Amino acid sequence: MENFASLVPLVILIPFTGSLINLFLGRYLNERMIGTVASGAAGIAFVIAATMTFAMPRFGYEGVVVNPPILDSWLYIPSAALNIPWQLRVDTLSLTMMLVVTGVGTLIHIYAIGYMHGDSRFARFFVYLNLFLGFMLILVTGNNLLVTFVGWEGVGLCSFLLIGFWFDKKHGVGWKNSNAARKAFIVNRVGDFGFLMAIFLTFWTFGTLDYYKPGEHIPGPVHGETVTIEPGAVASSDTHGASTETVTDKGIFGKAEDLLAEGGHIVHFGPFSLSLEAVLTIITLFMILGVTGKSAQIPLFVWLPDAMAGPTPVSALIHAATMVTAGIYLITRNSVFFHAAPLSSAVVTLVGAVTALIAGFIAVGQWDIKRVLAYSTVSQLGFMVAAVGLGGYAAGMFHLVTHAFFKALLFLGSGSVIHAVEHGHHHAHAHGDHGDQGHEEETPFDPQDMRNMGGLARKMPITFWTYLIGTLALAGIIPLAGFWSKDEILGKAFNGGFNDGKIEGFIALGLLIVAAAFTAFYMWRQIRLVFLGKPRTAAAEHAPENGALMTFPLVVLAVLSVLGGLLNIPLGVNIPLVPNEILTLWLEHSVPYTKGLEFNFLLAVTATVIAVAAIFVADRLYSPEPLTKTGKDKLEATGLRAYFRLANAKLYWDETYFRLLENPYNRLSKWLANVVDWDWWHDRFHNNVIRDTFNRLAGFLANPVDRGAIDKAFLRLGDAVAAIGGRLRGLQTGYIRTYVFTMLVGALIVIFLILLPLLRQAVGR
Amino acid sequence: MEPKSELLVTLTLFMPLIGVIPILFLTRGREARIKWYALGFSLLTLGASLVLMFSFDSSKAGMQFEHLWEWFQFGNFKVSYYVGVDGLSLLLVVLTGFIMPLAILFSLDHVKERVRLYYAFLLLLEFAMIGVFVAQDLFLFYVFWEVSLVPMYFIVGIWGGEQRIYAAVKFFLYTMAGSILMLLAILWMGNHFGTFNVQEIMSAIQAAGATNQSAFPVGPTELLLFLGFFIAFAIKVPIWPLHSWLPDAHVQAPTAGSVILAGVLLKLGTYGLLRFCIGFFPKVSVDVAPIVAVLAVIGIIYGAWVSYAQTDVKKLVAYSSISHLGFVVLGIFALNSAGFQGATLQMINHGISTGGLFLLVGMLYERRHTKDINAFGGIWKVLPVFSGLSLVIALSSMGLPGLNGFVGEFTILLGAFGSPVLGFWFTLFATAGVIMAAVYLLYMWNKVFMGEYKQPAEAHGHGEAHGESHEGHGDAHGHDDHGHGDEVDMEAVKRAYPPLSWNEATALIVVVIAALVIGLYPRPFFGYMDASAGALAAEVQRYVPGQTTVVQE
Hints:
The complex is a heterodimer.
Chain A: H1 2-5, H2 8-25, H3 31-55, E1 64-66, E2 73-77, E3 82-85, E4 88-90, H4 92-115, H5 122-141, H6 145-163, H7 173-206, H8 252-262, E5 266-269, E6 272-275, H9 276-294, H10 303-306, H11 312-321, H12 326-333, H13 335-339, H14 342-364, H15 369-389, H16 393-431, H17 437-442, H18 456-459, H19 461-475, H20 481-499, H21 503-530, H22 538-541, H23 548-563, H24 582-587, H25 601-621, H26 641-648, H27 653-713, H28 719-731, H29 736-764
Antiparallel strand pairs in A: 1-4, 2-3, 5-6
Helix pairs in contact in A: 2-3, 2-5, 3-4, 3-5, 4-5, 4-11, 4-16, 4-23, 5-6, 6-7, 6-11, 7-9, 9-12, 9-14, 11-16, 12-15, 12-16, 14-15, 14-21, 14-26, 15-16, 15-20, 15-21, 16-19, 16-20, 16-23, 19-21, 19-23, 20-21, 20-25, 21-25, 28-29
Chain B: H1 7-25, H2 34-54, E1 64-74, E2 77-85, H3 87-110, H4 115-134, H5 138-159, H6 164-193, H7 198-210, H8 221-236, H9 245-252, H10 255-280, H11 282-308, H12 313-332, H13 337-368, H14 379-382, H15 384-398, H16 404-417, H17 424-449, H18 460-469, H19 471-477, H20 490-496, H21 502-520, H22 523-541, E3 551-552
Antiparallel strand pairs in B: 1-2
């Protein structure tokens, strides 16, 4: 049983090793070798993860806790009953994440070899990329909230490093990139604050942070019913602060289940006494704050669009396919907690659905090809978050997987476009046969602006066709992957509303359907702007198709975007040779409270009709030419002008935050530092109050206290010390430097007096 | 015959003092050797402290390697030379041994004036600081406490920046003001208990506590005594709002001085709080813990906020100490084992991380002779190794998991949350300080290391022209930014930012390794502390009315 899972430390170690090799030896290697090392590391990790996956059925799909060799506990404080082992969890959930991370990761690594060709920090890029994989794998395999947090922060660091990768670009772009990196880190820190609070609460409620103890297991799932954790050892009902150790062999979920089943538990935190359910609600609410940071949900999503400052492979890997899905993973992993906290689940649902809608709306008004995709990612993450909020853990994970395929595809496709347009621009520039170059000297050419594109379908056929597949998959067109996964989420919302009578189910259903319409619309707008019509600039005219290193991953991802839906065909749909609900059944082995769903034909038809209609509208609007004669969006020429401008201005979200949070923070900081701390406290208070008081006090102490008490006390120290004391008194209020010198001499004499008997003692023996 | 392990502490203590002798008596003309002697003896001290650490029995709570020598006695007062270490002071001794070679390593290249006096003061300071950590006699403790002031006063006053005299005097006066009160308290204690022996006094207090009595007279005496010690330590830490001496002393001190000041000297205060305020006055500690913790939390947030507004890099780091030491004080007054251990480890961590930050600020200063944050930019591009190491140090200060800062902060916050006297709100606000640490440190990191490379003014004309000629080229590549390596004039860069010397690189690498080791494998460090911290926590919690129960029916 343990054998196959004990490979898991390798999955983590190999990317780290790749990172270290390129860090220390990168300068001696050429690009191809660096790329091979990095992609090889990712590839090997994928192969190991796949091996474990295929071994899983033979071991009954049961999750295993693995103790890595050599390493024992990370934090181990017996007297505080704290023990954080470096344990890893191999189960169907973590394997799913491992496969996505390493699989998509490997493809993106290969792509990046082509994309980053010629960059002066080529090696460092792959150092970061491998480092990211390592931390991401820690995040998804850790068997402990705190180990997950290590990965969580680690990927945040890599995200920071990669967003700011081109920190040194000219024309202020470098500063923009650096600030985007900083923004991402700080906004995520706000989320991490929530995660940390959740950790503290969990620890003091359950006395441990482990998800599962070794040997503890979830019993075989009963399909369609709630799965509960089998009561094993009797959980102590009064976990007693730091002093008492409750020896049970259960992790936080097992304990939570037991205590909830018993009912009536009260948890005391200092002055607070709360029911266990209330505590779980608070824990999960804090967790949600963490999720909104990492998975870019309202209110903390603002960092993700700016994060597109990083190189495009980074956007694909970290800011679309993997890191940003960590929040969905976290909620799924903690499904027991969320299940017990309906309020938090409702909050999750609403946060997700509102984010999906708002980000979808903003995406309609963007010009930057990557920004559209960025807001689209925020929106799709909203779908996933809404799904897990409604208890659709499998639905959320399903969309996570398919989204990883087609969004990585779209990002890589956009990278391919940008790369080509840049080359086209360079080409046109070098030949100098176009009249509009005079302007470009002043305003740098933006190869990401869709207004500078057009007609690229003929220039870059592979990129176009794969991009089209990605678009349709994202828009949810049958039978592509996105259709199935999005439909399952809508089905969950429908179910939550109509069957379970949850108000948030109705709301989510409505918001998500509108968001889906937006999705189809902005994606088709993008297709029209980028690939169809006529080239609008010389750069687009001369854009070449990219090499195989970049197109091969596109093709693979396109295939996955087509076939990805087969992973979880809902009940009620029969496809030959493909069993239904593969992913749901697979996840049930590790995610309690996962439920499958019947195919809802009516809903599927409605959603598809809406998506097709949105595409149709977009196609009408943006054809034959996507821009008006003055270079404006076609929407601006209609009555929807105001809405377009609102979307284009991102709803003034950043500006609002700046006004409400950032600016007051900065001003308060300046005020505290300059006025309060320096002018008032440091200068005035110190000089006028403290110094004078001290002088007066010193005068007082010099006479009555020093002479009265100290001298009497040290009378027997001998004449030497007394003499010094006499000098001290005389100099008390005098020249400080003399004072200090005298003290030094006095101190040295005291030390000498210590030494003397010591020496005598040593000699005497 | 068994080696006399009881002399180990004494040996560690006196090693730096022995080092002063050859330095003082080295003949003229051989002054070049002075720095190597100083480095050698500081390394010997480190070695001795490591031997101490490895021969330490971490299963015991009490003092080890005790060395007691009855010194003299008069009337009620019994004074002895009594030293020893337990789990709480052991690591601080090692920290002192660790920080001093780093400070000297940096000074090797950069201190050229009055070297004899300089290194003599450094070693004397090390002697005094170790003395404070190992002294088990209040009188002896006080002597070391005061002696530690003197060398630092001169280091700031002689080798410091422009306003060094002002800063040195202020530093001295502030600390003295507290010390006087502490002296009174110490004399009272010595008189009352008939001894200055810390262990004897503690046993008397604990014996009284065990029978629900107080070793102190009724009335406010115990509180007053507590305050006598507390104020002295609070100034040293410094606990908000007594921090006003700190930015002056830090900014004016030479780099090595700042490293030692932040690395060790501030810990004299936090160590004193833990050992004496908590140890002698557990009852008062329980009563005042929420008040002190409020000050600590204010310090965390205030320090972070004020730090963010600084334009002087060194001042920014200086204020960050207020924030970081707020965490330490919070951990101490959580009054549980996790808090004590987190606090002690965080003292070590702060020494390493902030020591490292001051080192790198010093290295920047030696290159550009400015500490203005706006004078820098894009250094990552021109000094990648230095910047990489700096990033790790900044991240460790920020508390990134896997590096040392996180381990300490996490344990402190966990302790504060589960504390019988603090709890949710304290932890909530203190944890918010973790966000703020990222704000000011990334602000600094961003301004100095990221962004476009700023060529200093002296080579400006040349650099500008060169950059311009390449602009079209850069544009053409635009997004990809291929081949931007040739955009800056490497000769001008070398003049502005000479690469790290071996000494500098060694110092930074050592700091980074220490940060990684503690971050990834803190277990042995907690192991050393566990027994002592657990015993102290058990002792204090006796005074907590109605122990907190976490989950119950």
